[in-house]
Specification:
about 350 residues; mainly alpha
Length: about 350
Amino acid sequence: MTERFRELDGLRGLAAVAVVLSHLTTGYDSKYPDAPRTPFDAGWGAYGVQLFFMISGFVILMTAQRARRPSDFVVSRLSRLYPAYWIALTMSIILSVAFAVPHTDIGWTNRLLNYVMVQRWFLVPNVDEVYWTLAIEMQFYVLMFLLLVATRCRVTPRVVAWASGVWVAVALAVAVWAGPASRGINPQYVDTPVKVVLNVVLAEWAPLFAAGMLAYLARSDRRFWLPAVGTGLLGALAAGILHDWAQAAIVAGVVLGFFAVASRRTTPVLLLPPLQWYGKISYSLYIGHLIPSTIAMHLLIPLVGRWAATGITFVVVTLIAWGLHRLGEDYLSRRFKNVLKGWQKTVTAR
């Protein structure tokens, strides 16, 4: 399967907008309870993250199958993610210090360590709380890289099916083991040894990445649809074991929504230009919205009220994301990719 599945861009756009709305409404209220209350509750938008992970499983397998060498995959992923991330992180550090944004004073050593992107692996706090998902994505990329190395870039459907099955089985076993120490507890208060094991195997997230990969295979071979949907629903089971069954029900809904799109030849509503455009800037919108939006809300609410402040802030972070996309993802990403390819040629020539 080589043609681009453009509906995924529309889903990305929906997921990114949902996450932003959740932070502008319910998320803001939870952090600043003395502020005027949100005009509407969009806490459900936080589940855009689960949708992102399934989309990632689909897209990353497609990227991996096109790689001629494992290093091609590395160059593709690093050049795609890091330039925009470094800009967004620098912006967030400057703004958080200049405006003394609450909950962001983590010290300069930790701020600098955030430039590696995978600081979560070492239990280093994030400058911006949304960065936690990036370390999880990178962990998935490392696993895909190892699969490419082990198979010499022959990532066949059979290999993917077996690798997914083993990974999900381990993840669920760990979820069952960790459930009593995790269920109903804020993740930041889970005991560190338990948290480390959960993070290493991606116990909560492995079924979602695997479901995305199997969905990619199912677009070409219908035999994979049932395993794909079943694997996605195991992600809901993991959420229930580690958190609560209400959350599991929501995750199940997200999973079924993803497959309702993935199993169709086309979903015209997801091809609408606004959703496609937000899909294009979704990465920049996700990594660049939280701290600027917090500052904008603080400044605007006393002047124009909560309704108007929410709308204006959404426009502001959209414009920031567009600029970040153009500079980081379009301009600098291409140049960084050329640098990495130069290093790649030097290493392979030795």
